[in-house]
Amino acid sequence: MSSELPGTSLDDVHLPGHWLLARLGKRVLRPGGIEMTHNLLRCLNITENDDVLEFAPGLGITARHIIKLHPKTYTGVERDENAARWTQVHLPKSDRIQIVIGTADKTNLSANCCSVLFGEAMLSMSSQKQKEGIVDEAFRLLKPGGVYGIHELCIVPDNAAEEMETKIVKALSSSIHVGVRPLKAADWCQLLKNAGFEILDLGYAPMNLLQPIRIIQDEGLIGAINFAKNVISNTIARKRVFAMKTAFDRYKENLKAMYLVARKPNS
Ligand SMILES: C[S@@+](CC[C@H](N)C(=O)[O-])C[C@H]1O[C@@H](n2cnc3c(N)ncnc32)[C@H](O)[C@@H]1O
């Protein structure tokens, strides 16, 4: 099976920001970086008895970490066909591991099919209605007692002015070229509670996706150097990456990465 990066038919001007970063060599595309992913995986405590489902695996970075924990099964549901193929090709071949092309709010998978569900940097890109659909589907797919971990963008503090929220949404959406709608922590918790979940844990990290230290942590030194070279040598991409970084930096006091762990009650 051949694989190419998502968005190959789009030029650097029109490509969604996360696929532009991928084209430039960035593989970790979530706001709290690989460190927050590891924190979240520790909280989810995946064992050999777990059926794990991941919404939006993207390029499969977290999938690889999950598979190293030897769960009973791993299934990724990814709506971008190229990303799904890319991830399938780069994961170990096993009948316990599969990537399904589909959308997280209507997966067509059976109810109660997983014990751990995971999703990073995908709800923030969804409208409120889509968020509700995805979280309802998560609740349907999880077995009673199963856990749901999310890693998303968060507006802080909970009493931040609505005007600030509007400015952040506008700045992110126009620089990333995708509708980005982060919520406040209280609203993320309410979204999950409305679907029936109970909240177990919550944590924050700075939104440092495009800070040099974070890029080295996430991509390794060689990956970070290659990314920097690609950014410097491509004028359009450089302008776009700096526009994204400027938006993140401008709102750094009010924009954080957040993880949340929730459980589907036993009854
Ligand atoms: C910013 S990337 C994050 C990828 C990966 N989770 C990561 O953290 O590196 C967003 C990903 O979400 C996928 N996505 C967005 N909405 C989705 C949905 N409703 N169902 C499945 N995948 C979705 C996109 O195709 C893309 O792969």
Ends distance? 43 Å
CATH domain class name = Alpha Beta
Strand content: 15-25%
Q: So what's the overall shape?
A: globular
Domains (count): 1
How much is the average pLDDT? 95
**Overall SS class:** alpha/beta
CATH architecture tag: 3-Layer(aba) Sandwich
Q: By CATH's scheme, which homologous superfamily applies?
A: Vaccinia Virus protein VP39
Helix content: 40-55%
Q: Descriptors for this entry?
A:
alpha/beta, eight-stranded mixed beta sheet, 9 helices
Walkthrough of the structure:
The protein is α/β, with parallel strands linked by helices. The protein contains 9 helices and 8 strands. It has one domain: Rossmann fold. Strands 1, 2, 3, 4, 5, 6, 7 and 8 form an 8-stranded mixed beta sheet that branches. Helix 6 links the parallel strand 5 and strand 6. It is globular. It starts with 16 loop residues before the first helix and ends with a strand. The model has no long low-confidence stretch (mean pLDDT 95).
